[in-house]
Amino acid sequence: MFDTILIANRGEIACRVMRTARAMGLRVVAVCSEADLGAAHVAMADAFVCIGGAAPAESYLRGERIVEAALQTGAQAIHPGYGFLSENPGFVEMVEAAGLVFVGPSAPAIRAMGLKDAAKRLMDEAGVPVVPGYLGEDQDPALLAAEAGRIGYPVLIKAVAGGGGKGMRLVEAPDAFADALDGARAEARGAFGNDAVLIEKYIEQPRHIEVQVFGDGTRAVHLFERDCSLQRRHQKVIEEAPAPGMTAEMRAAMGEAAVRAAEAIGYKGAGTVEFIVDGANGLRPDGFWFMEMNTRLQVEHPVTELITGIDLVEWQLRVAAGEALPARQEDLTISGHAFEARLYAEDVPAGFLPATGKLAHLAFPEGVRADSGVRSGDVISPHYDPMIAKVIVHGPTREIALKRLARGLAGTEVAGTVTNLAFLGALAAHPGFGAGEVDTGLIGRDLARLSAAPEVSPALVARAALAVSGLDAQAGPLAGFALWQPLARGLTLRRGEEDLPCVLRAEGPDRIGIEVAGARVLAERIGGCWRLDGAPAPAVHVSDGRVTVFDRYGVAFDIVDPLARDALAHGGTGLIEAPMPGRVVSVHCAAGEAVSAGDRLAVLEAMKMEHTLVAPRDGVVAELLVAAGDQVEAGAALVRLEEEEEESAA
C-alpha cells in the first residue's frame, strides 16, 4: 500500500476521498486553483499545491501540472474523484508514465466506454441487452431519418460523446426530426467537439436504474442497484438504493449483465453500468437495456455504501495498491434502504439557474450523512459546480428512510444564497414518489407544484422581526421597558417586492407582542426558549442586512435600513432625524461641507445593527446636531442641510 495519495479534484468529492484515505493512515495531498486557496478540501489535506487559475482549463484540467504536483509532494498515487480528468484516458497514461498509480480503471477500459455508440456495440457482443437503435458511423441526415422511421417513433437523438443531457433531443414525429437533429448536433459540437449522434428507441415510461460494479482487472462483482429516475433535464436530483419494486429475478439479471459488461473490458476499480428500464408494467427481466457505463466513482455512491456497509473509496485504494477484490458476490447483501438528495445553490423559480454568493450559515441535523465541500463563510464560486452538499439517509425500510430524508431536509439550515432545498423537500413529500411510482418524467409533470414558493405566515415574519430587534436576547426584570411603559419598536422587513412593517411591544422581560400584516403574534420565553403563540420559535441567522428563518426550508427577508429609507423618503427637507432610539457611532460630514444625494453623513447603531444615514439630496451641511457617542431618541434631529433657497442666494 502506498503511503501518500494526491486527489486531483476539489469540493465534496475531494473531502470524501480524504476522509477514507486518512482513516486508512494515508497522507493526502490536495491540488487547488487560485480561487480555491481557502477551500475546505485544502484545509483538510496534509499538503497542497496551487496548480493555476480559477478556470478549470487553467487548473483542474491541467494533467501535466497535477502529475508534477504529485511528484513534487512525494505522492505515489492519484485519485481522480469524478468529473474533470476522471474519465480521460490520456491522463491515465500520463500518470502511469510518471511511475504513479492511477486509482481507477485502465486507459483502454475508459476508451472502450467513452463513446456511446462503440460501447453499445461492445455490450451487444458481450450479451448485454441494448436499446433498439442506430449506432452506425454514417451520419447522413437522410439515413438517420430513415433509421428513426425503422426504429419507430418516439426516438431519442443522442450525442455519442459526453453526457449530462447535452446533445440530446426527443423526437415524437417524423416532421420534427430534421430540426431536432440540427439542434442536437450543434449542442454536441459546442460541448464535446464531436457532433456525431446515435438514434435509439424512446421508452415511454422510463426509469433510470444503474448497477454499481467493482473489478480487479480480471474479475468483477456488483453491489446491487440504485434508482436515479428522479431527474430534471436529464440531471439526477434524488437517488435511492435499492430500486423500488425491484424483484429478485430482475436484480439477478441486471447484476449479471453489469458484471458481464465490466469483465468484457477488464475493468478495475469502481464503475457504474446505467440501464434504461421500461416501468410501464412493473419491472421485468426483459425490460431493461444498457445505456452507458461511467468509468469512475459516481456522485450517488453513498447510497450503495449505506445499504451494503462497504466503503467504496477504501476498496478503490486497496485494489489500486494491488489487492484482489475484497469480497465475493455471495458475500454481498442489502441492508435497509438509502436516499441521497443533491443540495445545490440554484434559483429554482428562475429555471434552476446556478447561483453564487457567500454561505453565511450552513448546518445539518443529526441523523444524516452530509457529504459537503463547503463550510459556513465559504463562497459559492461561479467557476465550478454549485453543489453545496449531498444529504444522505438510511433506514430499515423505504418508508422510514424517506421520512428520515424529509426530516433531514427540513432540519438543514442554509443562509446567504438561494438553494433548491425547498424543492427537494417538496419531492420528498410527493405522494407518487412516496408510493414508489417513479419515472424520469415525474418532476416535469409536477414542476409547478414542486417549485411553488412557501407560504409566509405572520408567525414566521414575527420570528424574523424578533431576531432583528435584538429583544430575543435580552433578559432582566426591566428589559424592554422605558419610563414604566412598554417599549414599542418599529422595523420593516422586505420579501421580494413586498414591505412588511412590524411593531414589537415588550410587555415584560419574557413577553413581547408583535404586530405584523394585521395580525398579532405573542412571543414568550418559557424555560429559556422562545415560543410564538405557543409553538417553538425556529432558529434564525442574521447577517449582511438579511435575516433567514429556518422554517419551511429557510425563508429569507431583507432588513430595510430605516435611516436610509427615512432620509430618502423626505428628500425635499433639509433635516435628517433618527427614526428610532440609538447611539451615534460616527459622523462623516462637517458644517459647511458640500454633499451629494446618497453620501454617508453618519452611522447610527440601533437594534444591535449599524445603519448608514445618507444625504437625501445635494446640498451643504448647515449644522451638525450630534457627535460620535451621543445617545439619541427617535425623532431627534441629527444633521441639518441648508435650505435650497439659502444655497441659491449664497
How does the helix and strand content classify structurally? Answer: alpha+beta
Main pleated-sheet profile: 9 strands, antiparallel
First-last Cα distance: 86 Å
Oligomer: single chain
Q: Flag low-confidence runs.
A: 480-484, 566-571, 646-650
Strand runs, count: 42
Tell me what you see in this structure:
Residues 480-484, 566-571 and 646-650 have low confidence and may be disordered. 45% of the residues are buried. The protein is built from 19 helices and 42 strands. Helix 4 packs antiparallel against helix 5 (107-114) and helix 12 (398-410) runs antiparallel to helix 13 (421-428). Strand 7 and strand 8 (168-171) form a beta hairpin. With 650 residues, it is an alpha+beta fold. A 9-stranded antiparallel sheet has the order 31-30-29-28-27-26-34-33-32, with helices on one face. Strands 14-13-10-11-12-15-22-20 form an 8-stranded antiparallel sheet, with helices on both faces. 27% of the residues lie in helices and 33% in strands.
Task: Outline the secondary-structure elements.
Elements (H helix, E strand, L loop, with lengths): L3 E4 L3 H13 L3 E7 L6 H5 L2 E6 L10 H11 L3 E3 L9 H9 L3 E2 L4 H8 L1 H10 L7 E2 L6 H11 L3 E5 L8 E4 L5 H16 L4 E5 L4 E11 L3 E13 L2 E7 L6 H17 L3 E11 L9 E7 L6 H8 L3 H9 L16 E8 L1 E2 L5 E2 L2 E2 L2 E3 L5 E4 L6 E2 L6 E9 L2 H13 L2 E3 L5 H8 L2 H4 L7 H4 L1 H4 L7 H12 L11 E2 L2 E2 L1 E8 L2 E11 L2 E6 L2 E8 L2 E4 L2 E2 L3 E4 L2 E4 L5 E5 L2 H8 L5 E3 L4 E6 L6 E2 L4 E7 L2 E6 L4 E6 L6 E2 L4 E5 L2 H6 L1
Parallel strand pairs: 1-2, 1-4, 2-3, 4-5
Antiparallel strand pairs: 6-9, 7-8, 7-9, 10-11, 10-13, 11-12, 12-15, 13-14, 15-22, 16-17, 18-21, 19-23, 20-22, 24-25, 26-27, 26-34, 27-28, 28-29, 29-30, 30-31, 32-33, 33-34, 35-42, 36-38, 36-41, 37-40, 38-39, 40-42
